[in-house]
Amino acid sequence: MWRVVIIDDDHKVLRGMKKIIPWEELNCVWVGEAPNGKEGLEVIKELKPDIIITDIYMPVMNGLEMIQELKELDVASKVIILSGFNDFEYARQAMRLQIADYLSKPASIDTITEVLSRVTKELKEEQAELLQVVELKNKISLYEPFVEKEWIKSIVTGTVNLSVLPSTVLQMVESWEKKQHVVLAISYDQPLENTSFFKADGHLFRFAAKNIINEVAQSFFEDFQYIELHIFQSALCIHFEENQEAISNLNKLTKKIEASINTFLQVRTTVTIGSIKSNWREISDSMKDCVSGYGNRSVIHPVKEDGSASFQQFLWSQSIEAIQKLSEAIRYADQDAASEIINSFFEHVRSYPYSNAAAVRLGIEMWTVMTYSLHDIGIRIQEVLPEDFDLLYELSNQTSWQDLNIFLNEKVAEICHHQQWDENLKHKQLVEKMIAYLNEHLSDNITLQDIANELYISRNYLGQIFKKIIGESFKNYITRVRMEAAKKMIQEGNYLIYEVSEKVGYVNPAYFTTTFKKYTGYTPTELIQKRFEVPKKA
Fold first, then answer.
1. Phi-psi label, residue 535: left if phi above 0, alpha if psi -120 to 50, beta otherwise
2. Signal peptide position in this chain (predicted)?
């Protein structure tokens, strides 16, 4: 209800107003009164009303003086003057103070009701506009990190429009102007779907890999961004002052990342360093060096079968820009874009003699990109194609580059028009936003309702989608992510237990300890003690 304060030195007026105004009908409630402007100021500061009805002529401080002070204090209440003074100068002063209305005493109940009704309507409209502005700001703040992340990803892959920079990255780019820049490409040397950790929870695997890489990088460099290019490949874009120590740190960083991923996730990786660039606009060239064989290590294993080096440089796995474009096209079921990318690629390949071995390898590379893109949005390619589909058999039976081109385009069409697509894609993208928001707010005491509010979606509906895509409830998932993060921090030994509790979103250390023991089987203190236990001799 709209809160109303009345300021008047006439007690009869105060009593009469309280009685005659149809408060409930107007959705208003009387909350306070004062006999003069000075006391009225204090009442208004304390009660913060939506509407103020005031006389002009009062002792100590008159109504106009009070309104002037309220304006200086930025009080946004609507002011209605109800005064026995009909002096034009008073009315003009009042209008300069931007009051809602000026009524002369005695005013009829109909007139007062009509004015209050109009003022409450204005308040309601202003409140709706304010809510829209707040919602818009919240949406902008929610999507700003995604804009920045996608822009950096496009810088690395060479798909960005450098003539137009998003406002969210201007300050960051300015800090890059006097720095050196390099890309480290991180690729997994074995199929992730065959690893136990990834099979158990692909999202948690990616979250853990990102955290491990970021933490290792922080020990060597201050300014860097982690970019997930695909499930099977990521990159670090690093910016640093030119010095010999930085070069040494790059070499140390590659070894540390490979060792850490292998230790914590039991997956072998290859980290390749691209060429160092003095201009951030050439960052994509550093990435291309990583995957074209000019980096310090080869990320993609080269084809050793027949075919010259000049042909190998056209192989799909060596074009990060093309891989990125195909991945995005498949991810969004954009058949036209995917076909255009494939056709463009084959325009280059047709100038080389057809090789069945190279064609099979090329087809497998393209198929891998599409398979992982589908997996990333919750669709298994085996569910899209017939059960008897045999990729190796189909690829081996192609007799020319044109046949292979047509075959791949047919499969793209089949994939993009599959009935599973729309629902899975929307749900997967929604869950990705949820997980990204959770990862960025892990230290907050966040709930499913909080994320539902941020995404403007029903809590129950969001929970159902999350469980469908991830395979477990949001509550279980967030508990598991928090507990795994807590275990890692406790084992590292850099924080006290209450600090770990806060960093994973628990304001109550006792509740954190109870949850931790329920999840792990031991308390945080017991885990610390395990770190210092001396192994018993056999």
1. beta
2. none
**Phi and psi torsions of 274, nearest 5°:** -80, 180
Q: Both 265 and 200 in a single domain?
A: yes
User: Could you give the 3-state DSSP secondary structure of residue 418?
Assistant: coil
Q: Helix H segments across 192-267?
A: 196-200, 202-218, 244-265
Distance of CA 278 to the CA centre of its chain: 30
Please give the backbone phi and psi of residue 188, each rounded to the nearest 5 degrees, phi first.
-85, 135
Six token digits for residue 500: 């770990």
Same domain, 198 and 120: no
Helix runs in 441-495, H state only: 448-455, 459-470, 474-492
Per-residue confidence (pLDDT) for residue 136, from 0 to 100: 59
CATH code of the domain in which 85 resides? 3.40.50.2300
pLDDT for the residue 139: 53
> What stretches in the chain show pLDDT beneath 50?
88, 140, 142-143, 294-295, 297-310, 313, 316-318, 538
Count Cα neighbours of 216 within 13 Å in the Cβ-side half-sphere: 24
Is 273 among the domain residues? yes
Contacts (Cβ under 8 Å, ≥6 apart) of 93: 64
Report how far residue 412's alpha carbon sits from residue 329's, in angstroms, rounded to the nearest whole number.
10
Residue 299's nearest CA partner among 311, 279, 315 is: 315
Q: What is the CATH number of the domain that holds 269?
A: 3.30.70.270
In a domain, 93, yes or no: yes
Q: Residue 520 to residues 267, 475, 497, 513: CA-CA distances in angstroms?
A: 24, 16, 15, 10
Residues 16 and 118 in one domain: yes
CA angle 252, 439, 455 (to 5 degrees): 145
**Short-list 119, 117, 124, 121, CA closest to 24:** 117
Alpha-carbon distances, residue 52 vs 4, 43, 172, 396, 505 (angstroms): 6, 11, 47, 83, 43
| Residue 504 counted as domain residue | no
**Domain interval for residue 280:** 177-301
Can you tell me which residue has the tokens 């907050």?
A: 444
User: What domain count does the chain have?
Assistant: 2
